[in-house]
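Try it yourself: sequence plus zinc ion, in.
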Amino acid sequence: MAPTAGKGALPNDTDSMDLVSQTRSLRRKVTFWRRAAWMILGAAAVFLIVFWNRGETRRRECRASLQHYLELAQSAKLATQRADLIELHWNQFEPPTVGLSPMHFDLIVRNWGTLPKAGERIPLAICRDRHITTLSIGRHLLYATEKGLAITWLDEEAAQEYVEDARKDNRTH
Ligand SMILES: [Zn+2]
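Structure, out:
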């Protein structure tokens, strides 16, 4: 026999059960969305760290590569070569084991033959593509001083002048 006792009290019980289960389901939803929000925040943090790390690694590799090409340029006496051969020769430099190709750097060829005066900085090459890290966006610049070749990091705004110089230079060589 199916139990029939307490059947009259059933509607009230169902109402309060509904309320309890609604509250429970609401609480579950809140917990779910709270967890989801933390997971999204966590994922965003991981993404930012990975992004920063990749940008930083590439920026470091770029600087090391430019240092490597700077040394090759000095030993090959690149500055004394014919202007139309400088970029050709540069692009054929052997890249470092880990690092960027010589093509990553855009040369300002017409400046290579200029002898810097005391205190003067003559721009010679700049990154063809900017480097994006979470803290800064910019490029490396290779320049000549009276004492020799050197490298500096410029933020994107300061780099624009040299990027433009290198582009103009490409049209004449
Ligand atoms: Zn670079």
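One thing you can check immediately is this: The radius of gyration is 32 Å.
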